[in-house]
Each structure stands twice: as C-alpha cells, then as structure tokens.
C-alpha cells in the first residue's frame, strides 16, 4: 500500500517514520522547502525515545508533487489553517480509490475534505501521540500514544476499509482502534486541546507544570463545561467529571506531561499562527449559534490571538 503523509512536520513525521520502519512504502508532502530538502538528503531523522533513527522516505514540495506519487492512503497532518490549500495541492495524487485519513486536532475538518473527495473515502479521528521538531527533517519523539478513527459514511465497505487502516497503524506500533462513536471521541480529544494547548501557550509551560498549579483544575472544569454544553446541542454526551479526569492524565510527567502542546511549539517557539480558531474558536462560534454562553473559550481565543499579534506570528 502506498501511503502519503500530507504535512510531514512533527506529527506527520512521526507517522511517516513509524509506518516506514514497519516496512510500508511512504512518501511525504510538505510546504516547507528546507524540510523537504533535508528529508530527501539525509532521510527523516529522529531522536526516537532516546535512540537516533533514520527513515529513508521520498519527500515532495507541496507545489511540485510528482503525479506518479498516486497514493492508496493519504494521512493529513498539515495545520488546520493549511488544510484547504493542502487538499488543493493533493489533487494529482488522489484517485477515486484513494482513502483520506484526517487525525488533525480540531473539530469539523471533514467539511473541508469533502469538497475534494467523496465521503465514502473519508476517515476521521484523532491521535494522542505527541511529536516535536528540532529542525528541518529532524524529529524529537517520546512517550506513548493512541489513535481512534472511523469512516465518515456508514456502510460495510467503508467500515472494512477503516478497520484495515486501524490494522495498518497498529502494525506500525501506533496503537489504533476503531471508534463507533467518533464524534464523541473527537469532542473529547478537542477538550484536551481546548484546555492544554491554549493555556500552556499563554502560561508558557508544559502540561505537567500546568497541572501542578492550584488553579489548573478550576480552569479545566470551566472550559470542559462549555465544550459539553455545545456538544449536547449536537447530540453528544460529554460527561464533565469523566472528561476532566481524562485531561488530567496528560499531566503525568511519566507519560506525556513534559510535552509542550503543539500550539506552544507553534506560537512560543516558532512565532507561527495557531489552530485556536479550530479548537476553542469552534466552541465560541457554535455557542453563539446555539445561544450558549462560552466566556472561557471566547476569552482564551482572544488571548491567543492577542499573543499571536504581539509575537508578530505568521
Ligand atoms: N505535535 C503534536 O504533538 C501534535 C500535533 N497534532 C496535530 O497534528 C497536526 C500537525 O501538527 P504538527 O505536526 O505539530 O505541525 P508542524 O508545525 O510540526 O508541521 C505542520 C506544517 O507546518 C510547517 N512548519 C512547521 N514548522 C515550520 C518551521 N519551523 N518553519 C517553516 N514551516 C514550518 C510545515 O508546513 P508549511 O511550510 O506548509 O507551513 C509543516 O508541514 C495539527 O493539526 C496538530 O494540531 C495532534 C496531536 C499532537
Ligand atoms: C499532545 C496533545 C494532546 C496536547 O494537547 C496535543 O494534541 C497537542 O500537542 O496538540
């Protein structure tokens, strides 16, 4: 099976590396020319749980994709604001049979993807793996994680295809599972991002440091209540205490507590724009639509945008 990782940054790099090391034929596509050149010259290099490893994969610049690189499976890992542009660029590698898997953070990405491919070829989910970059073509990967996914369209063929993708990912050590209730799973993961990403970015700390503060739990509860109220309007039952307990598992320094959320890596480390509009911003917008007050999500979205401006993020 030919797999194309679209957005071979930190998380796309992790998937490319692990799938390639498991013996799959993997290509990468990315908009960052230095990253593409480094991967083609030196391979995808990683500090992988303390061990230096290299995966030899072929990478293409997003604007120079070779049409011979037609994929059976495309795994999407650009940033949310790059998704539409990435889907445009992917046209040469997508056929009627190409499956598209989106595991990006955020809510509602399938609305963009279905402008380009039929719903029976779209698979959505999320990932609890973490990833960081030390420079072009260089990854820093530690800790464990998991993946949950499902077909967007019901039906035997789409379900079978989703389960095949689950097996492919699990065989590569990515610890995947099929989730019947994927919208619930996506909302639940979005609460982790809706708390950890924005708050650790504004407070300039990792998840474990955040969890050690006396006000951490109160802030998390307040934000989760807003996600839960919006989700309820969409028929999704997001239990607040259970969700808060789930978020608190990310504070453990022995698992992923030392991770700086991807939003922190974007804004504080690299002065790049963030995905806040696709996480807390969605709750702000849907809250307004449903007549639900979401002061914490609205304020956190405003704070992150203000910080983007102060840091001249691009
Ligand atoms: N990192 C993590 O731990 C996790 C990330 N995710 C999600 O995965 C998706 C991808 O995120 P992630 O892998 O973190 O993103 P990265 O920022 O590492 O990579 C995404 C893209 O950003 C560009 N880019 C990144 N760094 C630079 C740089 N220094 N200079 C120039 N361009 C750069 C590249 O494309 P381009 O040049 O086209 O901009 C790259 O393909 C997101 O939806 C994220 O929320 C989910 C769980 C955890
Ligand atoms: C690891 C985790 C769950 C932290 O919020 C994440 O998704 C990210 O870094 O964006």
Automatic annotation (TrEMBL):
<keyword id="KW-0521">NADP</keyword>
<dbReference type="InterPro" id="IPR003710">
    <property type="entry name" value="ApbA"/>
</dbReference>
<comment type="function">
    <text>Catalyzes the NADPH-dependent reduction of ketopantoate into pantoic acid.</text>
</comment>
<dbReference type="Pfam" id="PF08546">
    <property type="entry name" value="ApbA_C"/>
</dbReference>
<dbReference type="InterPro" id="IPR036291">
    <property type="entry name" value="NAD(P)-bd_dom_sf"/>
</dbReference>
<dbReference type="InterPro" id="IPR008927">
    <property type="entry name" value="6-PGluconate_DH-like_C_sf"/>
</dbReference>
<dbReference type="InterPro" id="IPR013752">
    <property type="entry name" value="KPA_reductase"/>
</dbReference>
<dbReference type="GO" id="GO:0050661">
    <property type="term" value="F:NADP binding"/>
</dbReference>
<keyword id="KW-0560">Oxidoreductase</keyword>
<feature type="domain" description="Ketopantoate reductase N-terminal">
    <location>
        <begin position="3"/>
        <end position="150"/>
    </location>
</feature>
<dbReference type="Pfam" id="PF02558">
    <property type="entry name" value="ApbA"/>
</dbReference>
<dbReference type="GO" id="GO:0008677">
    <property type="term" value="F:2-dehydropantoate 2-reductase activity"/>
</dbReference>
<feature type="domain" description="Ketopantoate reductase C-terminal">
    <location>
        <begin position="181"/>
        <end position="308"/>
    </location>
</feature>
<dbReference type="InterPro" id="IPR013328">
    <property type="entry name" value="6PGD_dom2"/>
</dbReference>
<dbReference type="GO" id="GO:0015940">
    <property type="term" value="P:pantothenate biosynthetic process"/>
</dbReference>
<comment type="pathway">
    <text>Cofactor biosynthesis; (R)-pantothenate biosynthesis; (R)-pantoate from 3-methyl-2-oxobutanoate: step 2/2.</text>
</comment>
<keyword id="KW-0566">Pantothenate biosynthesis</keyword>
<dbReference type="InterPro" id="IPR050838">
    <property type="entry name" value="Ketopantoate_reductase"/>
</dbReference>
<comment type="similarity">
    <text>Belongs to the ketopantoate reductase family.</text>
</comment>
<dbReference type="InterPro" id="IPR013332">
    <property type="entry name" value="KPR_N"/>
</dbReference>
<protein>
    <recommendedName>
        <fullName>2-dehydropantoate 2-reductase</fullName>
        <ecNumber>1.1.1.169</ecNumber>
    </recommendedName>
</protein>
<dbReference type="GO" id="GO:0005737">
    <property type="term" value="C:cytoplasm"/>
</dbReference>
